[in-house]
Amino acid sequence: MSRTAVAVAHPNIALAKYWGKRAGAGNFPAVPSLSVTLAGLATTTRVALLDDLTEDRLTLNGEPADARALARATALLDRVRRAAGTSARASIESTNDFPTSSGLASSASGFAALAVAAARAAGLDWGAARTSDLARRSSASAARSLFGGFAELEAGEENAGDDVVLSALPVAPSDHLPMRVLVCVATEGAKAIGSTEGMKATAQSSPYHDAWLREGPRIHGELKAALLARDFEAVGTLAERSALAMHANAIAAGMVYWSGVTIEALAAVRALRARGTAAFATIDAGPHVKVIVRPEDAALAGTWMRAVPGVLRVIECEPGEGARIIGDSEQANGGAP
Predict the structure, then answer these.
(1) Exposure string over 2-25, b if 16+ CB within 10 A, otherwise e
(2) Average pLDDT of the residues in 95-120
(3) Which of 105, 220, 316, 324 is deepest in the core (most CB within 10 A)?
(4) Quick one: DSSP state of residue 29?
(5) Does the model's pTM come out above 0.90?
(6) Residue 179 burial (CB < 10 Å; 0-12/13-18/19+)?
(7) pLDDT tens for each residue of 270-311
(8) What residues does each domain of the chain span?
């Protein structure tokens, strides 16, 4: 028997960042975060549960995934199998239409799509909240990609057990605050230090980590209030502040995700703002700068950012939909697809 589901999910960019995990099991973030899900970038994932497979298989962008990626996928699938009462192994095919593992939230869209597709293939009638909790256990940011528009993920409790549920929550629909996010691609390659490793090292050795644990929740609260009030400039200002505070914390521990292109792009955003255009920068754990602008300023800002030395391309995104099923089937003949 072959039970197949195909899901698509979009990465989300955290406007109010989370950087750091709570101690204990369960993969709980140390500070709350608030994000926007981006149309214009997508992960498409096909999960086939097959009775005659002896182990899970994962291909990513057409190539066999490495052992670590497969182990993370299997951990998610094991939770689905336990809930569904099945032992069927999975053949997973996942494709990103944007650079993978380079700081563009491919793990968020990847695990959101995998969670949705795996639950459907296993016949689980789970809503977005339960599937968000499933995705969070593999990648905290993936919890937010279950939802379109703007979503938040609260911080977890210290030493919370693996049985504690924590789902992302929708904050506002995609059309609540008109904006565009210009993704300035600085490299097509993967980053040298993964986010999980970077967060752990930061928590262990950054002299600024305690300050970040105090500042992060404050910025989150102010940014959420600004978003609900539709105050674009306050949202942009606070998003940039959150990104810089997060990276100051990480850089102090030697976790430097920036490149020369990052510095040049940040300077270009400031120059654009000095000329009177409301443009603000945010940066995740990678070298790419994302520029937040009003829709009417996107063309000018895009031209400006494409002129930055080292920017390979600029992808214009807008707030988009949450993760969703785009196809499923059941076949009696089984066998590998």
Answers:
(1) bbbbbbbbbbbbbbbbbbbbbeee
(2) 84
(3) 105
(4) B
(5) yes
(6) buried
(7) 999 999 999 999 999 999 999 999 999 999 999 999 999 999
(8) 1-337
